[in-house]
Amino acid sequence: MENTKKIREGSVRTASRLIRNIEDRHPEARAAIKKIFPHTGGAHIIGITGSAGAGKSTLVDGLISAFRKKNQTVGVLAIDPTSPFSGGALLGDRIRMQKHAEDQGVFVRSLATRGAMGGLSKAAGDAIHILDAMGKDIILVETVGTGQQEVDIMHNSHTVIVVLVPGMGDEIQAIKAGIMEIADIFVVNKADHAGTAQLIRELKNMLDMAHIPDDGWRPPVLTVGSAFETASFVENLNILSEKIADHHQYLIHFNELKNRLRRKTRVEIRDALRSCILDPVLADLDARGELDRLTELLINKESDPYTAAEEIASRYLRKIPIKQTKKGGIVR
Amino acid sequence: MENTKKIREGSVRTASRLIRNIEDRHPEARAAIKKIFPHTGGAHIIGITGSAGAGKSTLVDGLISAFRKKNQTVGVLAIDPTSPFSGGALLGDRIRMQKHAEDQGVFVRSLATRGAMGGLSKAAGDAIHILDAMGKDIILVETVGTGQQEVDIMHNSHTVIVVLVPGMGDEIQAIKAGIMEIADIFVVNKADHAGTAQLIRELKNMLDMAHIPDDGWRPPVLTVGSAFETASFVENLNILSEKIADHHQYLIHFNELKNRLRRKTRVEIRDALRSCILDPVLADLDARGELDRLTELLINKESDPYTAAEEIASRYLRKIPIKQTKKGGIVR
């Protein structure tokens, strides 16, 4: 309870310790989240994503300044996967963001977790709760990368900003497929580079084809130059922060906030179920040495993965009474 | 059984249909894999990864030609996530690879699956089994992206090639962290671009610091120019295919192949357990409308994700007897 109180009073030390516990998958983390959860829900959570080198960190830095000018408190969670291939680039960011280090209204943390399916999305969700319970008005969640993992993390937020840079030919083609589903605002960064006009045209064409209803939200396409801290950069960031506020208003006004909350909550339930159902089974199998034995069995082709998994499921799961009576639910 | 026979005879039509079933998560797919599994294990599975625009497709194309010259049959699985942000770039590749379309010894398929945690890694593992059972000597598994998902997919292979291009400043920094764990061969692509010498130097420094034992495998760093189908390109690809063969020999000679197999099998077991334990629980909760009710409960802060998930776990899971007697295992 002590922790919860300290978090609610904005203790940077307690928050940092809890986030470390989340990274380490320390059992205390789960207990803390349980207690903190009722005190969450106040922040506007903004996800920022795009591939490495798109200039997200400069953008985040500029956004912090823009929100602070409006006297809003800001929490930043930089997701920093330690797995091969990813993250890393965030290192520079944190150094840059030190200019906000003296500001009590800004709390910046990176979050790193190792391997394990879906671990990062769950850890991000938990860490966001901590920043939320601290009473931050705005939470910026930054990810580097372009996979399903990043999409999952983005589902933790209310407003999703996708950052693009001109001249990444493959990139826009790659992004076209499903980006409409999750982008609320597009930012074309380094817009002083060649290819900006074409990228904007492509984005707008794509949005035109999406047939967004008149009262729906059409993701605006904003541009930001790479000349950090110039007057035009600051001005562009102000415009971006206004668009973010507009989107928040839209969500509230059209009752869309609840839909986002549902999306976010569903991701959280799934993640929690994995750690409460699948992880203990795996841990138990491992403790009994069965994972090793099973591995040898499969290598020798004496079984196959599905037959083995079905057998394990029948041992660990009670009979699943699909579509039976609805008694005994979670809601009493 | 019919399917298994056809697959083993190399039927392109049956293989394509099964891969489509895997994509669609058709229940037939699981039954097919169970039957096919005993007939797998003959192929040398080679994973190729790197970020978008690194020129993996040209490389794959060149590798197909190099292996065909040695009379080896080749299966190619291009992983093409339909999720936002990813894949896409593979479209061009498939068109390019059509020059192998007439060649009976080459089978190229892309694999796309939607969303759902870990779905892609499992689907890739299953599709690889199909190509394996078809009797392909070499299976090339190509992924675009740099996340945990790609690492998981790479764990399905025996030899991992990481493709880099010079001049992606962020990239090398980002990759440094954990790449040593999974890269067996580095290819510096578009090596006629600026920054090649520096990139190679950085890679070699990194390998020097890894203290690889004298009888261990030191990942070679190869360069390939971007001038497709020139004599030097063909020559470089021959060298690469030789290095791949060397790595295979190394794996066999030092009994490392079994370690790779174990790694691959462990991923497969985990994926199969998810689909046999977690998915049915989620499906049952959904069928009962409990996921919706639970979502509302959490939104209203009447519960928290972990308390809810623990309650669900206690309903669906039998008591987990951690470290109890070892009777009742899978191996009898």
Q: What this model shows, in words?
A:
Two copies of one chain form a homodimer. With 332 residues, the first copy, chain A, is α/β, with parallel strands linked by helices. Chain A has two domains: 40-254, 3-Layer(aba) Sandwich (Rossmann fold), CATH 3.40.50; 268-316, no CATH class. Chain A has helices spanning 2-8, 12-23, 27-36, 56-69, 90-96, 119-133, 148-154, 169-176, 196-209, 231-253, 256-287, 290-299, 305-316; strands at residues 44-49, 74-79, 106-111, 138-142, 159-164, 185-188, 221-223. The first copy, chain A, has a seven-stranded parallel beta sheet, with helices on both faces. In chain A, helix 9 links the parallel strand 6 (185-188) and strand 7. In chain A, 49% of the residues are buried.
